[in-house]
Design goal:
Elements lengths: L1 E7 L2 H12 L4 E10 L8 E10 L5 H11 L18 H5 L21 H11 L32 H10 L4 H14 L2 H4 L2 H15 L14 E6 L6 H15 L4 E5 L7 H12 L3 E3 L3 H10 L5 E5 L8 H11 L5 E8 L4 H11 L6 E5 L8 H9 L5 E5 L8 E3 L2 H10 L2 H8 L1
Parallel strand pairs: 4-7, 4-8, 5-6, 5-7, 8-9, 9-10
Antiparallel strand pairs: 1-3, 2-3, 10-11
Helix pairs in contact: 4-13, 5-6, 8-15, 9-10, 14-15
Length: 425
């Protein structure tokens, strides 16, 4: 197995070099663009760097299939500013950066994500109650309906905001809570000033979203991270993306452990990725096996644990998962949820997986939806579990981002995924 970096003026030229050196069985692991030369990095020539790998032991047909998937257009430009208004440029510069907090308390199956709260959330959507301090009943389901009890006492211009948030999937009760806050703090003039109102709404929603920041290693200690969640949400692909980033880009020592013996070929898929990246892969069948493998690899920076997909309604499977996660402490768990999941289904997933500690929410498949209100809904409705990462496609390792509340706020308000992807490269 060989891994090599190729530099060229364009992506096409770099890929040509890869093909010349490694042949058609090469696997593209990472691409990036940067400027070389110039003054302090300015005015330099734009270059493309491609990291590719080749393993002569991998059978050609399967490798070619993987290349067809990974040899897509990959770029990694630094993201530009999210807010372009000159009027608020100085304000944007003073906005606090994302705080990278250490692992916080775990969220178990407690009152804030209990079935009682799930029932309340469903009633909010149906307009039976409003999310206010008094939880007063409402009689009309639409906030924009003139004379409705929800709109009574709110300033003009609120209907436009309600419509925008509703169309992007924000739950009605949460919308009303946002409108109440705006109504209490802004004047009619401010609310009807589109530039001001858009910036205020960006900031307000960003403040509501809890994020954890990237996974950080602890010097002299190994960190165990488990990826849990339902079947089909992309746990294995997400784990591989993170492994590639931390191993190939940040030079961290990593071991991958899989307990996914339910899916045919799942362990082989992970082993092939491990061979290409030079990362050891261990397969475990029992919690005792898992404990032994952890002890074996305590010299690694990160131990990534790929669990089998579990039905949130299968108590036996969830109990088995709980047994695995109890063999060592602490284990940081990331509950992986597809962004296309309906809010109440996702809330039910959190509730049922709450049988084990949940430290982070990780959203996948943002490229498969145009509606991002569920990110805000779950950030609030889960009881405050922070969001760790967002995945935006199948390409390994580029299509994953550290969750940023400003980006999430933009997606919730604008729903402009394509514009964001163009901006990030």
């Amino acid at each position: 197995m060989r891994i090599k970096k190729f530099e060229a003026d364009t992506l096409q030229e770099a890929l040509a070099k890869v093909k010349k050196d490694f042949g058609p069985d090469a696997v593209i692991l990472h691409t990036k663009k940067y400027r070389k030369g110039g003054i302090f990095g300015l005015f330099g020539a734009e270059k493309t760097e491609v990291t590719a790998g080749i393993d002569m032991n991998i059978d050609s047909p399967r490798q070619q299939s993987r290349q067809a998937e990974t040899n897509q257009l990959q770029k990694n430009y630094p993201a530009g500013p999210l807010y372009q208004s000159r009027q608020y440029a100085s304000r944007q510069q003073n906005m606090p950066s994302v705080k990278l907090e250490p692992m916080t308390q775990s969220y178990n199956r407690v009152e804030d994500i209990s079935m009682k709260n799930e029932t309340l959330a469903r009633e909010l959507s149906q307009g039976k109650v409003a999310l206010t301090a008094s939880l007063r009943p409402v009689h009309d389901s639409g906030l924009t309906q003139p004379g409705s009890q929800q709109m009574a006492g709110l300033k003009s211009g609120m209907g436009r905001l309600q419509k925008m948030l509703s169309e992007n999937g924000v739950e009605e009760g949460l919308i009303f809570r946002i409108l109440q806050n705006i109504n209490a703090h802004l004047t009619d003039t401010q609310i009807n000033n589109k530039v001001f109102m858009e910036q205020y709404l960006y900031d307000h929603i960003a403040d509501m979203v809890q994020v954890s920041g990237p996974i950080k290693s602890t010097p002299g200690a190994s960190k165990v991270i488990a990826f849990i969640g339902p079947t089909g949400v992309g746990k294995t692909t997400t784990l591989v993306k993170l492994a590639a980033k931390y191993a190939l880009i940040e030079n961290k020592s990593i071991v991958l452990i899989s307990a996914d013996t339910y899916r045919i070929g799942a362990d082989q898929q992970l082993k092939k990725y491990g061979e290409i990246m030079g990362i050891p892969v261990e397969i475990v069948l029992t919690p005792d096996d898992f404990k032994k493998v952890i002890n074996k690899h305590m010299d690694k920076d990160f131990i990534f644990f790929d669990t089998a997909g579990r039905s949130p309604r299968n108590r036996q499977h969830l109990s088995e998962l709980k047994e695995f996660l109890e063999v060592y402490s602490p284990i940081e768990t990331h509950l992986v949820i597809s962004a296309v999941t309906k809010y109440y289904d996702a809330l039910s997933i959190i509730n049922n997986f709450g049988l084990v500690p949940i430290h982070r929410l990780l959203f996948t498949k943002l490229d498969e939806t145009k509606n991002y209100g569920v990110l805000l809904n779950l950030s609030v409705g889960s009881g405050g579990i922070p969001i760790s990462f967002l995945t935006v496609g199948q390409t390994v390792p580029d299509d994953i981002e550290v969750a940023d509340p400003k980006v999430i706020s933009r997606l919730v308000i604008k729903g402009d995924f394509e514009a964001w992807i163009r901006q990030r490269g």
